Amino acid sequence: MKLLWRLIARDLSLMAGRPGEWLMPLAFFLLVAMLLPFAIGPEPTLLARLAPGILWVGALLASLMPVNTLFALDSADGTLDQLMVRGIAAETLAAARLVALWIGFGVPLLLAAPLAALLLGMPMDVLGLLVPGLVAGALGLAALGVLAAAVTLGARGGGGLVALLVVPLAIPLLLFGSRPAEPGSVGLAIASALLLAAVAPFAAGAALRASRG
User: Which of these, 15, 55, 68, 85, has the minimum number of CB atoms within 10 Å of its CB?
Assistant: First the structure.
């Protein structure tokens, strides 16, 4: 556990040194909330009804932005090889990156959610129902991001592969998370996120080992 926390602290420190990794997804998330009302129209009732789904789609798209750098930079400078040569399991590296991404992506997302809800005219009581799902949803999206980054490491056309991998697997999160007022939906969204978080480190670890030959 001490090793895991040290790896998480290292990853968070690297993210802090590269603010674009969390500022750009945050800006993209807010831009989605800002621009979609212009495309949909100014009808407040329609916007409020669509707002939860818009926030979830914005969160999903924003979570794809840091995928290309999650393991690529460590792979390019040899850090990934050095960590694995020292006996650190690839699953541990993937789990640490998952938690760090959850914190680095999820916390700014939650801080921006009230502003995005205001832009979309979402009632605050609906936002209160949405937040628990978003907390867990950020974990699920981080898990998908880590898995996609590991699978596409070194692959040509990685961006297209990321979309093919992440979007179908995110459907349960979007389906349940965007309906916070329906009984049981938030619980199912949380369960989906936890399942993804439990499986992703092992799948990502296997992909990392395969990419190292």
Answer: 85
